[in-house]
Amino acid sequence: MKQSDNKTIRRSDDKTNYEPKIVAFLCNWCSYAGADLAGVSRFQYPPNIRVIRVPCSGRINPLYIIKALQSGVDGVLVSGCHPGDCHYISGNLFARRKFALMKKFLDYLGIEPERVQFSWVSAAEGARFAEIIKKVTNDIKKLGPLTYFRKDFEKTGKVL
Amino acid sequence: MLKEKRNLMLYKQDFEKFFRLLSETFTIFGPSKTDGSRSFTKIDASDEIAFDYENTKMSLKEFFFPQTETLFFFDTEKNEVKQTDVETNKHDKQNILFGVRPCDAMSISFLDKVFNANNPQDLYYTRRRKSTRIVSFACTNPASTCFCTSVGCGPDSETGADIIFFELNGRYFIKTVTPEGEKTIKSAEKLLNPATKNDIEEKVHLMKTANSNLKKIFDSGNLQKKLDNFNAPYWGKLHRKCLGCGICTYLCPTCHCFDITDEVIKSNGRRIRTWDSCMFSLFTLHASGHNPRPTQKERMRQRIMHKFNYAPKYYGKTFCVGCGRCVIYCPVNMDIRDVMKEIMEER
Amino acid sequence: MRQIEYEIINTVEKLFADKKIDIFIGYKKGTLSLQTSPYFLSEQDDVRKLVWNSFCSNNLAVFIPRIIPNSKSKESKPVGILCKGCDSRSLVGLIKEKQINRDNLFIIGISCPGIVDRRKILSRLDGKEIIGIDEDADSIVVKLKDGEKRFEKEEYLCESCLNCAHPTPSIYDVLIRGAVYSLQAITPDPITKDFSSKPREERWKIFETEVSKCIRCYACRDACPNCYCKECFAEQTKPQWLGVSKGLSEVIFYHIVRILHQAGRCVDCGACVRACPMDINLRLFTRVMVDEVKERFGYEPGISLKDTPPLATFSADDKQEFMTEPE
Question: In this structure, what CATH number is given to the domain that contains residue A58?
Fold first, then answer.
């Protein structure tokens, strides 16, 4: 007996008029401050990101990224301090290794590499932050919504 | 119950016609050649049925009691609850499960005691159960992992089935077990002839051979008494190689433990019932963090006790049909037959 | 084979006689043909039941973190264990990640000729019942009711054994030497190379089809020695990462995260593949991490007790070609 929640979800082709939802995990010390600077300096960037502040890019567990993708976002950006500038000395360098493996693995499985991106943005780089958000938003816009493993369930049934 | 069980004969060359007649009124499910008899799937033509399979990998229980079942949907904004349509059948046809092994048929009679008894009755299970006929297929060539005769089942057991088929030379011997079984074959009546004395003899002989291939390994009655000792020393040893995965419980045709949880996405939610396994630590974990079954020792004891001691007390039946799935698929070859032997030998 | 079995039995007997160990984990004859079963034996048990053959497939290291608490008292004796190449690599990982103490182990290492994949043999028997098994240096003879069939071992080894670079244990207290095939280990493994060359959508389709068979029994996790977490993310409830339904989304989520957690740990022993009741080709997805870790960080898990696990260290000049730069 086939279950409705077990069926294959097709990749969507609807790319027109589509605004992606992107989660940005930003480290407290550099990228979050960079985003702040972009704001106070009035740099324009697409309003597609939802920021989650984390203490350090080293705090990111790949689980968070996958969970975000499963829960309905179309892409994830993780951003931390430039190598050498980590508030915790080396958190971002540990993170870089994890990210490298994760990026490779998701690509290998067939998830578009643009869905999950990593970047370095310092507290002084407001303009760079805005540029990166533009790029990430554009990339994901081109891909369209991520539907093929989003958690969803069909709502059939009678109203009681 | 049926006043008189009928013995009928069907020639193998008429099977195709028989199948077509039945499929006019029923949707037929069976072990199919295309998925390597992994589970019971919809069969459209008679030659898709895998007759020579030993047993499907997934037991029959998922047909009536699926691994995930939505009980209802709810909307927290609109404040409403939506009932699910139980998947009975889309074409208003009833279902036939064709080619069920007698052990699996018996397991359904056990699940009936759990879900389909008078009080309380499980709506979802019952609806599917009511619209389904079980046509079982006697085992003429039991596998080396089968131990049905040790637990009160057998290669020709009729319990749980509506009709049972025996494969004789060039023809099928068909025995109707229940009134529903009688109704099921009504449309194909013209293809069936009453069985002669010779036919019956051939069938009896066939099943004798099949039975002789099955060794009786333990006596479930004695076992139940033996298991009354909850703190027996062997529990400290038996579980050691158990990995704590859920293969045995998920593939078991009689294991029926489940969990009920809510899933919510934004304001939409659903309440689901999913299989659970006593082999998992989460099964008994309390909200406080306390776990009354902290190690695999207690979990394994629970599994054995539930089947061989508690179930006979509550339902009057050992909840094991000897299908051998847990024996075949256990990654560390924890053989329940050995476990039973070990328990019986312990003084 | 017989010779090696005697050697194992004698060594274990001596260990018990010298009171060096209280418990030993090896293999005994299984109840099914083409299978053995892990055997926990103490002094009073029959040491002669220990076996060594081409079907000793379980990675016994999985039991070690479960039976030795990390802070073991000084008085208790080490646990004896029979280790193939891959089992010892798993132990190295566990020791390095401080899950167990090397002093609490007595390892009988055995150079492994590779484990025969019982499913490969079973698939050639058309469901015929096996009456007996004979094994010599190069082949397995399966006796059936209507004759016998010979299988050359080399062709029927497990996938992970076919590309095993270290059949001889990396750590041991006693080593029993046996025949080892002169296997040529290739990195990256041909299966991942082949998979990578497929178009993206097809790769996802394959992944989806494979994991959609999953029934969430967690045997892959439970059979893995390097999955030692006391509380798995799959079972955490505060927060709950993973839903409990059998939906495709949950299954995909579980497998991606499990495999990522094993990156840098996985020794490619194949225990998860053999444990899976639904025959999911898990190695197709786990192996790529082994290759990537080797290529990127020059690290092979389980080879040495000295080098630091790749994700517990870093280098200032690690490659970062994947980082996003503004256009």
Answer: 3.40.50
